[in-house]
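Is FE2/S2 (inorganic) cluster placement plausible here? Inputs below.
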Amino acid sequence: MSDPNKWATASGPDVPPGNAPQPASIRPVDQSRRGAIGATAALGAVGGIATAVPFVASFSPSERAKAAGAPVEVDIAGMKPGELKRVEWQGKPVWIIRRTEAMVDTLGGLDPQLADPASDRYYQIPTPEYARNEWRSIRKETLVVVGICPHLGCSPSDRFAPGAQPSLPDDWQGGFLCPCHGSTFDLAGRVFKNKPSPVNLDVPPHTYLSDSKLLIGEDKA
Ligand code: FES
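Reply from A.M.:
I modeled the complex. Tokens:
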């Protein structure tokens, strides 16, 4: 059964390792049947194009741009301290978190407990220069991260409340917990040591168009 927490990923428990037996669908094809299969596939492809073109053409300009991975503008005016906002960019969930002062304060001094405190490694997106700091963001109070666990692609949940609670250490100061295999991340998306995820949550390129407008997917660089 597929895991409801799992976000789309190129690898994962459903993908067999490289030396596992190949499924029937990718075994060598019987040469005598190749022509017939090719002709059928070609007809199928034509039918697919005939139905796909009107479907894509029916998209509005903004929907087409979004499907192609255009930057996403987000209004962050009115976000309350401690609030998390979810948007989608390039098919990925992106979280915007308005951290409180107390949340920012938890980030200092965690380095010895973190696997990669300086964000030297990354999952799919190299960490932008402006996020290679302790709070991993342009503005201390606003964190922007991709909400996909780099271990096997689940979506972590926010566990902002500090203190002992199930699946978390007694000295928990707030952050994120991946329910699939227990990776924990601090309030800057940095993974703790000895967890299944080898790297931090990705920070997407982003920039501020104004005090209250954030652009995700593009930056001044
Ligand atoms: S997917 Fe395994 S810990 Fe997140």
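Short version: The pocket of FE2/S2 (inorganic) cluster is lined by residues 149, 151-152, 154, 178, 180-183, 196-197 (CB under 6 Å).
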